[in-house]
Specification:
Layout lengths: L19 H7 L6 E5 L5 H14 L8 E5 L2 H14 L8 E4 H11 L11 E3 L1 H14 L9 H13 L12 H20 L1 E3 H14 L1 H10 L2 E4 L7 H11 L9 E6 L14 H11 L3 E4 L7 H11 L20 E8 H17 L7 E5 L5 H11 L3 E3 L9 H14 L4 H7 L9 H14 L3 H11 L4 H21 L4 H12 L1 H7 L4 H20 L12 H12 L12 E5 H4 L4 E6 L16 H15 L2 E15 L2 E4 L4 H4 L6 E5 L3 H9 L9 E3 L2 H12 L11 H9 L10 H15 L7 E4 L3 E9 L6 E6 L3 E6 L5 E3 L1
Parallel strand pairs: 1-7, 1-8, 2-3, 2-6, 4-5, 6-7, 9-14, 9-16, 10-12, 10-13, 11-12, 13-14
Antiparallel strand pairs: 14-15, 16-17, 18-19, 18-22, 19-20, 20-21
Helix pairs in contact: 1-2, 2-3, 4-8, 5-6, 5-7, 6-8, 8-10, 12-25, 13-14, 15-16, 15-19, 17-18, 18-19, 19-20, 20-22
The structure holds a DNA duplex (15 and 10 nucleotides).
Length: about 800
Amino acid sequence: MQASDPQSHVSPRLLDNLNPEQRNAVTLGRESALVLAGAGSGKTRVLTTRIAYLIQTGQVSPSGLLAVTFTNKASREMLTRLTSMMPINTRGMWVGTFHGLCNRMLRAHYRDVNLPQTFQILDSGDQQSAIKRLLKALNVDDEKFKPREMSWFINSAKEQGLRSHVVEAKDEFTRRQVEIYQAYDEQCNREGVVDFAELLLRCYELLSKNKPLCEHYQNRFKFILVDEFQDTNRLQYKWIQLLAGSRTAEQSNVVFAVGDDDQSIYGFRGAEVGNMRDFQRDFANGNVIKLEQNYRSEGAILDAANAVISHNKDRLGKNLWTDAGKGENLRIYPASTDLDEAEFVVEEARTLNREGMAFADMALLYRSNAQSRVLEHALFRSGISYRVYGGLRFFERLEIKHALAYLRLAGNPDDDGAFSRVVNFPPRGIGARSVEQVMDLAKRYNISLYAAAANGIANGDLAGRAGLAVGSFLKICEALKSSSGKVSLAELVDECLELSGLKTHYAAEREGADRLANLSELVTACAQFEETFEGPLEGEEPTDALTSFLTHASLEAGEHEAGESDDALQLMTVHAAKGLEFNAVFLSGCEEGLFPHEQSMNDFDGLEEERRLMYVAITRARKRLYLTYAGSRMLHGQTRYGVVSRFIDEIPEALCKWLVVPDKNAAYGAHFGAGGFNGGYIGNSGVRAGGLGSDNASSGSAYTGHKQSYSSQHYAEQGNQPYGRQGAPDTTRAGFETKKADTHPFAVGQNVKHEKFGEGVVVNFEGRANDARVQVKFRTEGVKWLSLQYAKLSVL
DNA sequence: GTTTCATCTGTTTTT
DNA sequence: CAGATGAAAC
């Protein structure tokens, strides 16, 4: 390797435009290293360029390296970039997520791990229902052992590499949990299914127990690259250790780990930041490369991020810098309510758009999904197109799950989860009673539900109406099973939708149109999948298209990729935004209890993780960042009063520009009337420094008379400590509702009465003055739009 | 056996 | 507030 300069073989521009640290990382020799890559420091670029570099310099063949990421998106991105850098056939390369790669190994050695070739993967929902089913079968009180908590217990044990027989049980309760854990694993084995954590654990055990096999992989993967290392859990760490080989340092494979401890935001699901420290000890041996130059955000944004994260105690230490200018200050908007916050975002996004920024370059972020509702509502009314990421994904939709359950049964009749999901869906006269009979039979003979049902009918245990109904269900499954080898995947699904009666069922249902559309989307998805589906590589176990598709459905859940074309504002949680960047970012709900979330703010680790989450949020923005919070918001059906997030307080005042809406009416009046008034709020820096009183008084006559309004009251009362306990929420509330009454008397939620339609409640409104219309949900007449000008509507 | 209504509950992030 | 579950009506 030293004989000839390896760089001479490298394609001409591969290493261009890399800064010294990046280049260092890319061209590193045969040694393990930890790359501490700050947000926006070109992490993915380094990772992919290194792969290209290793291949081009002949240090490794494409099949001799293993690159593992955390998300499907990241691995796809890696492959895309790689193919754009060099002509390469990525098929056969071991690039994927932890779960994807483990799945691949388990499929290849399914006999060694005691799994059926067609084993299926339980997603978290499937796992939950499996546990519920188990608890019922064991006659365990699911109030005392809640399925949620049980799945947490089981998953965290697995993520630490612990099987039930080695879990320590200090008390009776835990002992019982361990028993359930064991029973759960037995159930999964019986049914031939694995959950997410099992995928990793089973693979780890395969390698650790099967020395020749482990050595085979160790010999193969000379270079191992790990993305988002801070998100790895203990089991993943040990898996990497196994593959790296625990031989002498010279012989051991090279592990190149890239991560950012400041962006570790998955501790709640078992990720251990501590792995980064351990890695330095076990692998890198002090070999740490820091990427600290940020190419994404402008100065003020970056400074704010650094300031916030500096409050964390437990850090490896890293400070991002940029040679971009200071840029704009962060804009902070204290909204009166969540509705006000949403309206602000709408107005502001519109203004930015008018000024030339595409909506698609803006993101609206929130801490928890529940917050998106109000925001979406405001966007919907404004007519701005938007896209929500996350939420329920394609393969998680109920109707899709049902259809997939039939397909799973076609592939593996022992899948009791799938069986119970659809025995009586669509309803075919198999009630709880009949299902119980089948379950009893299954338990008595220790066989699957499917087998029990078949036996029961054959030997008369299951007779009469119940027997007939169950028989018809089994017929459907058999028909699908016999078709599965013969027809194409898409045809099979089509047949499944017909035979099962799902199509008919949803066609008859009042609100079934969407579900029907999704089902036909499923057929399309199958056709597409089949097109790209390639048989096994040489030496690989053949996997049929059906099993592959079902695996794909569990592992990838189907991100929404439609609608890329139109210019839509992007809505997502902060977690979902990790790795992305936008010209403008709105971070909503910057309130204590929400962000930091109340579930996390009480313990030290939780709070530090929340702060890292804040750091992630801030560093998503390139040019402009808005932080908004609301004095009150609806949460779980009741109004909650919030105070500004401590994280905002951790941002130096000099980087902030406070936006205040002194009076909504004045702002709207100006907005709709005179054209010149832009936005309706006044920039105010130094508010928190205590200068507000005078600032407020001098900033214009338009609103000085409205001391009632939330913002001014807020500051007037609280001076330079804006987030003390909320003093007078009642005034706030009154102020807000008065405002509503001014626009028209029928606020959302108002109970009203109509001469013809009777009583109802206002659910929406639009327009103003003469052409105002309200949407009313009547008790008996359904939902109607009414024009206030004509409809005789009275307040109740 | 199925539908509907009412009550309850749980609320962070996800491969 | 919404989704899930359970009890009573159909």
